[in-house]
UniProtKB/TrEMBL annotation:
GO cellular component terms attached to this protein's record: plasma membrane
UniProt topology in membrane: Multi-pass membrane protein
Protein name: Cysteinyl leukotriene receptor 2
Tagged with keyword Membrane: yes
Chain's gene name: cysltr2a
Transmembrane segments: 26-51, 63-83, 144-165, 195-216, 236-257
GO molecular function annotations of the record: G protein-coupled receptor activity; signaling receptor activity
Annotated organism of origin: Danio rerio (Zebrafish)
Gene3D superfamilies xref list: Rhodopsin 7-helix transmembrane proteins
One GO BP annotation of this record: G protein-coupled receptor signaling pathway
């Protein structure tokens, strides 16, 4: 929700949107190119691994189904980055039409909040497997995981649907604006933010922290089966570390700065701001930086898949010329994980 306000207080140089626009045109293309290359590479490898597993198993486990949906969500965002990159390379001019602009905005927020809840689902599954194994045995079915994925896509798609009906962006000196919102939308955006901040971030973060604490407590507890289950315990530990890392590095700064940014812009709109010019410019630049940090979550999810996905590391090892494990060994390992960690 990065907004610039053409024509707003142009008599005050520090409030001139062109100051931040120049920063955007430098920072966004650099970040988008890096995220696109890393994201496309990671997701291409992940898709190949999934296809390889599908050919050998002809089905996905419930956890793998959640991972597939998470990667599909990320891939949607990664594929939209070249259009965003083009916009800033063309000096904030959108040549692709109003419908494409609406879809790009929709895809971004759909990806972000669906990724949040797919991560929540993965952490809840792991929590149930370690703490409530018998309950997990009843819910770790394809029908339950399919319903969960459908609910996440449906609810997040519905919640983000107002972006598909946004007003057509104005023209500024012959350029069509897309990824920036007019100042008359700040009040509405602040109201939406007051809902999405707790529902789309705070509640999911609390669930992930709750699950992580109990998973970590279980992992630290001495177990007579520790030697036999070291690989699956490592996957549980990797899920805790990577999930919390994505929330704290990608999502937390973005949501905090977005709230401060919208409050500041509303004060500017109402001519009620009391902060210095340096503060206002710092908030606007921080909004750009944290937006890119949030976008970078699409690069980290393939890392999550590599360390947590079932048989993903062994598949990658075989591709790189490592020792090929037998099918029986793979099945024995999966049975061991099911009985001991209930994965």
């Amino acid at each position: 929700m990065n907004a610039s306000f053409p024509g707003l207080h142009r008599n005050t140089s520090c409030l001139d949107p062109s100051n931040v626009d120049n920063f955007k045109r430098l920072f966004y293309p650099t970040a988008y190119i890096l995220i696109f290359i890393l994201g496309l590479t990671g997701h291409s490898i992940s898709v190949c691994v999934f296809l390889s597993q599908w050919r050998s198993q002809k089905s996905f486990t419930p956890v793998s189904m959640l991972m597939v949906n998470l990667l599909v969500s990320d891939l949607m965002l990664v594929c939209s980055l070249p259009l965003r990159l083009t916009y800033y390379v063309l000096n904030s001019h959108w040549p692709f039409g109003h419908i494409a602009c609406q879809i790009i905005l929709y895809v971004y927020y759909l990806n972000m909040y669906s990724s949040v809840y797919f991560l929540v689902a993965l952490n809840v599954f792991r929590y149930l497997a370690l703490v409530w194994p018998y309950l997990y045995l009843r819910v770790q079915t394809h029908s339950v995981s399919g319903i969960i994925c459908g609910l996440i896509w449906g609810l997040m798609g519905l919640a983000c649907s107002p972006l598909l009906f946004a007003k057509k962006k104005s023209h500024d000196e012959g350029s069509t604006r897309c990824l920036e919102l007019a100042h008359d939308a700040v009040d509405k955006l602040l109201l939406i933010n007051n809902v999405t901040f707790p529902v789309g971030f705070v509640v999911p973060l609390m669930i992930v922290i709750f699950c992580s604490i109990f998973v970590a407590k279980n992992l630290l507890r001495p177990s007579p089966a520790l030697g036999r289950t070291r690989p699956c315990r490592k996957k549980a530990c990797a899920l805790v570390i990577i999930s919390l890392g994505i929330f704290l590095v990608c999502f937390l700064p973005y949501h905090i700065v977005r709230t401060i940014f919208l409050i500041t812009e509303r004060q500017i709109k109402m001519n009620e701001y009391k902060e210095s010019c340096g503060y206002i410019l710092a908030v606007r630049k921080a909004a750009v930086i944290t937006h890119c940090l949030c976008t970078s979550n699409s690069c980290l999810d393939p890392v999550l898949f590599f360390f947590v996905g079932e048989n993903s590391r062994s598949t990658f090892v075989r591709w790189t010329g490592g020792r090929k494990s037998s099918g029986a060994a793979g099945r024995n390992q999966q049975q061991e994980e099911l009985h001991v960690l209930q994965k």
